[in-house]
UniProtKB/TrEMBL annotation:
InterPro entries: DAP_DH_C, NAD(P)-bd_dom_sf
Cleaved signal peptide residues: none
Keyword annotations of the record: Kinase, Transferase
GO terms, molecular function: kinase activity
The protein, known as: Diacylglycerol kinase
Domain 2,4-diaminopentanoate dehydrogenase C-terminal, residue spans: 153-358
Gene3D superfamilies (alphabetical): NAD(P)-binding Rossmann-like Domain
Domain of life (superkingdom): Bacteria
Amino acid sequence: MSQVIPEKPLRVVVWSTGTIGRHAIAGVDAHPDLELVGVWTSTAAKSGVDAGELAELGRELGIKATNDRDELIALRPDCILHAAMTDDRVFESIDDLTGFIRDGVNVVSSGPVILLHRTGTLPDEMIAGIDEAGRQGNASLHVNGIDPGWANDVLPLVLTSLSQRIDHVKVSEIADYSTYYQPVVMKDIFGFGQPMETRPMLWEGGILSTAWGPVVRLIAAGLDITLDEPLIEEVERRPAPRTVKTYSVDVEEGTMGSVRFRVIGTVDGVPRVTLEHITRTDATSDPDWPTPSEGDGCYRVEITGEPQMKLEFSHHGEHGDHNVSGMIVTAQRLVNAIPAVVAAKPGLLTALDLPLITGRGLVSK
């Protein structure tokens, strides 16, 4: 499949103005194939505020944010770039996204990540319902980002194209989250800064496979292997060796300060695909765990076989660190995928359904 180049700019609504949404506004504005026509906000104080101000562009875009869903759907946009928080309202957000495509609007979304792959996590009838909504509205839905997303689905699969034999594919995020601003994720979902005996839902059995299992299963689908069920989960949480203040939560000494977890897909009991996260709130802690080759965060792909391959991908914001650029690359993966998603078949799409996506038209002038 070749790159998709629309005949005229596609009309886009950005849904939310938070840590990802504000970068999405900037990304749509900068893209030659896209036109920003609307912005949704859940915050009453932001309603009526110009999108350029919300995205901190230093100029107005002539588009005022609104919290009126029907007003934005009435614009008949080609696509909604949905960047609202979904981790704490997974099924409600699926209803929202399904409603958009039923109404005839294509959607690219940063969540819920449970929709990165079609099979093995949600009931088949739920996926069929999304597909039917897409057929009714002749519209597509694609959920992606950086992780779960491009760094652990497209990137490792592209690297496997160099393989003669593949024994094991391992994808890792290794990062210091101290400057990551997302209090709900950091405190309530991960449990950072909470007593070690506290058990957030993320660490209950089956939840990691729900959140990151779709990545493992998508890699397996790309390699045409059938995984054993259930997937294997491994978790090691450690207390903070000293008190640190992060952007999202204060982490007192002795409270939860770091975690290493894996979701492993096996074939006949042999590990074939592993998703790993090593997440610190203090870059100096846990020196026995892997660290990035440089900086405070990276994605690492390791392929065991013939040949042996290792690839480390890092990013850093021009005006911030890797947590800032993490929001940018999440937004831009969605922004740049819009033409391909609009042109694709209706229903739920995964990374395996899309053509090559590049930053066409974004070279500085």
